[in-house]
Amino acid sequence: MKRYTWGILVFLLWGTLSSCDKMKDLEFLRVASFDFDNLSFSKSTVKMELAYFNPNNFSLRLKDAEFDIFLDDTKVGHSLQDTLIEIPARDTFYFPVKLEVEMGNVFKNVLGALTNKEVTIKAAGNCKVGKKGVYLPFPIRCETKQKLDFF
User: End-to-end distance of the chain based on CA atoms, in angstroms?
Assistant: First the structure.
């Protein structure tokens, strides 16, 4: 009888695990909005809304996002999001970001940005993504090059 019970348990576990699709990465689309909340020479607060696309056939939830922003490998800011964001299946969603920017590090990169005409912007950190109360850690890693045309 024990063998029969273990056989059914293993079969059900195998069926459950094989039916789950691997989660595809969320795709960054664009910066939908950008606004300065508090501007000063030492620290500034920037509010952005980032547009992402969920290519998965199922909805998700995102919570506890924490990441750093780098300009040309120099850390310029930090963001901590503790709100729960609903991510619809196969649709675009907007991720609000409040970023604390250290202006001293930004000013260090201004001269290099003026001479190179291009700056590398990176975000690195972690968040939790899941559904139905089960959340798994998910890394935040994105990098883009942005042209700067001042003149």
Answer: 81
Contact in structure between 74 and 109 (CB atoms under 8 Å): yes
Residue 64 half-sphere exposure toward CB, CA atoms < 13 A? 10
Beta carbons of 52 and 103 less than 8 angstroms apart = no
Cβ-based neighbours of 19, under 8 Å, separated by 6 or more: none
Alpha carbon distance 122, 47 (integer Å): 17
In tens digits, the chain (151 residues) has pLDDT values of 555 555 555 555 554 444 456 778 888 888 788 788 888 888 888 888 888 899 999 999 999 999 998 888 889 889 998 889 999 999 999 988 888 888 887 777 666 666 666 778 888 999 998 888 889 898 888 887 777 655 4
